[in-house]
Amino acid sequence: MSRSVPSTATTIAPETPRAERVYARLPRSLQSLALTAEGWRQRRDRYGGDFERRLAGYLARERASEDEVRAARREKLRRVLREARAIPFWAERLARAGIDPERVEGPDDLASLPLLTKPEILARGTALLSPRVPRGAMRKVHTSGTTGAGLVFMTTREAVRDQWAVWWRFRLRHGIARDTWSAVFAGRSIVPGNDARPWRTNYAGRQVLFSQYHLGPATAPAYARALVALDLPWFHGYPSFLAHLAALLAQTGGPRPRPRVISLGAENVLASQVRIIREVLGADPIQHYGLAEMVANASQCPAGRLHIDEDFAAVELVPEPGGAHRIVGTALGNLAMPFIRYDTGDLARLASGPCSCGLPGRVLDAIDGRDEDLLELSDGSRVGRLDHLFKDAVRVAEAQIRQSSPGRCTMLLVPREGFRTSDRDALLRECRDRFGDRLDVTIELVQELPRTARGKLRLVVRETPPPLG
Fold it and tell me: Are 189 and 20 in contact (CB under 8 A)?
């Protein structure tokens, strides 16, 4: 058992939102100017220094052998472990586990270490910072957290550039160049209030950012006109938002945008979302799995499968009941605040057999979601991969499952045009076929689904039951 938290440890506080408040008061023209100024700052942080060297290294390993990729990962992993011993917490934990960095070959050699959890990081705070990295060289990172429990931690500019290098390897693989203009649909609050033109331009980042908080049946025609007029070749954003946009565009009629590439991230990707995005926008979306904590990364290959980027992070796939694997990872670039055997809470399924594309890395069949996304049945069983319930629900635009007690749930559906009672019956039949009498399902039709504070859509929401009495 680890010792108690040192009395000198302090929580790493998030940045104050002062800049966001100032931005909200600016006129429209100056907001784009402010976004562009921030875009230039991001370019320096992400693509300055040794970024090109790091990107060249990742591209060189694109067609490397499995042994070559493992060798690159081994050297990075040993370096992280050596540096971590300068931090008392990690020095003790590594010693207790009997881990010698020079003898570590891969992530499986870390199995004797306890898992590092988000509550533990929040509790220990600055006690996890390396004394070998100057505070002035550190960068603060915020994660939103799907359940509202975000995380604030420190990293380095070099680690940020390393992460962007592996992300650009994925993008270049699919024909996206660094100067490609994009329409971005994510969780940023870039348009305050009721604005008739809910998008702004980051010229430095070659991005037009569209607000997802303003999209609805009344504003969808304006979004459609802007997207058609701009003719941007690349769309990027949350799958739930792009699917919602596609569904609304299908209802508005008129010209539709035709991006060349659509990339999805930050949420689980449902088959129903892929279907409507392809149907309306005319491109097969590609997906990428990554985390701000930099402990795991997986990128879609040209054959449509997710490969773990083994040269970026040391990823363990810990078996879970029901055939899923828990994603546990060690960040290989962050020397300021090492994350070693970090429990992401995410679940995935391994594909059977190698991929025909020839790229290295273990292949994932699917990302099942987070641990809290599992549905609990009346017998105590917990099941994931629930997107398959909707694989044939072609007249469902969006869905969310809400559960407050085991064995009972409410399925909220946003119907598409033509939704009939038979569609409802088919979903109930699918649930019965999978879960028998262990799950009582009620279906409700709604006009829209609730999002998190950052605009993400969660497939499963575990609700707190009301107090008795």
Answer: yes
Question: Contact at 8 Å (CB) between 235 and 263?
Answer: yes
Contacts of 384 (CB under 8 A, 6+ apart): 322, 324, 347, 368, 369, 373, 374, 375
Reported as a single tens digit per residue, the pLDDT across 168-191 is: 999 999 999 999 999 998 766 677
**3-class SS at 3?**
coil
Entry pTM: 0.79
Residue with tokens 């009346």: 378
Tokens of 11: 């929580």
CA–CA separation, 207 vs 40, rounded Å?
Answer: 12
Question: Residue 194 — very low, low, confident or very high, per pLDDT cuts 50/70/90?
Answer: low
DSSP helix, strand, coil percent of the chain (3-state; round to 5): 35, 25, 40
Residue 223 pLDDT > 60, yes or no?
A: yes
Average pLDDT over residues 397-425: 88
Phi, psi of 254 (to 5 degrees): 80, -175
- What percentage of the chain reaches a pLDDT higher than 90? 51
What CA–CA distance (Å, rounded) separates 208 from 200? 6
Residue with tokens 């938290």: 5
Instruction: Report residue 327 as tokens.
Output: 């994603």
Which of 444, 375, 438, 361 has the alpha carbon at shortest distance from 403?
Answer: 375
- pLDDT band for position 253 (cuts 50, 70, 90): confident
CA separation for the pair 110, 431 (Å, rounded): 39
Query: In this structure, which long-range contacts are made by residues 198-201, counting pairs with CB atoms below 8 Å and at least 24 apart in sequence?
Result: 198/222, 198/223, 199/223, 199/226, 200/28, 200/31, 200/32, 200/35, 201/32, 201/35, 201/36
Which residue segments constitute the domains of the chain, with CATH numbers given? 49-180+233-372 (3.40.50.12780), 374-462 (3.30.300.30)
| CA atoms of 258 and 235, how far apart (whole Å) | 10
Report the pLDDT value the prediction gives residue 193, as an integer from 0 to 100: 65
